[in-house]
Structure prediction request, 271 residues.
Amino acid sequence: MKKVSFFVFAVAASLLLALTGCGKDKEVSTTGKEEESNGKTLRIVTDANYAPFEFLEGDKVVGFDIDFITAVAKEAGYEPKVESVGWDPIFVEIESKRADVAVSAITVNDKRKQTYDFSVPYFLSTNKILVPEKSDIKSGKDLKGKVIAVQTGTTGQAAVEKLIGENNKNIKKFENNNLAIQELLQKGAAAVVADNTVVEEYVKNNPDQKLKVVEDSSAFNEEFYGLMFPKGSELKGDFDKAVNAIYENGKYAEIYKEWFGIEPDVETLKA
Ligand code: ARG
Prediction:
């Protein structure tokens, strides 16, 4: 009698194991698939008009930021789904919690910190001035009296306002940075002020446009990019850990070298 009930138990138990997928074989054979489906999918928003950080290749959003957020999300155990919504909408989507994370070369500053949470820093940046090769603009001061194109709501706009006045009619604001650059190319503006990496890449990739970059460390501050979350988001802890993990395990350096061809200064970011 005892033997029979044990047998029944054993059959039932192995059936259960097989059904729930807890058996050893099953675990091994589905590892790859489970890794993907276990992670909760996160809605990640960006403005894909800011090469090399985020831009469109066909209808695919690519860039340093995209590889970075993909590595970080995976490290934290999530499945990232990146969507380009435009710059201003990023802030609306995050504030309303319709999106989980924003990655868009977003500078962390005190004003934004009042409304959003940010990860630890992941990139060092500063604004620089994009001008025609023959321009007489040599510093931030020289922007006075000139028409300057900026992307609305960026630190570039804020920096130019600080230099030439907040309501200065000479500041032309555009919904994205590519439109600001177009304005410069069409001679509707004498300069564009935007993040150094973006304007430097533009000059490098478009030699026949005959543009150059002017830097002025007394006019423009150092800035750090961060991932942006809705205020109070529970993701921040996991993501900070994951950013630090990819600093340590070399994944960040690998991605950085792929996009910029040089080693990153991870120590500056961690400091
Ligand atoms: N770093 C600047 C800022 O936060 C500009 C970022 C613009 N990013 C973009 N994807 N358009 O204001």
In short: The longest helix spans residues 2-20. The two ends are 70 Å apart (CA to CA). Residues 47, 49-50, 54, 87, 104-107, 125, 151, 154-155, 177, 195 surround arginine (CB under 6 Å). The first strand starts at residue 40 and ends at 46.
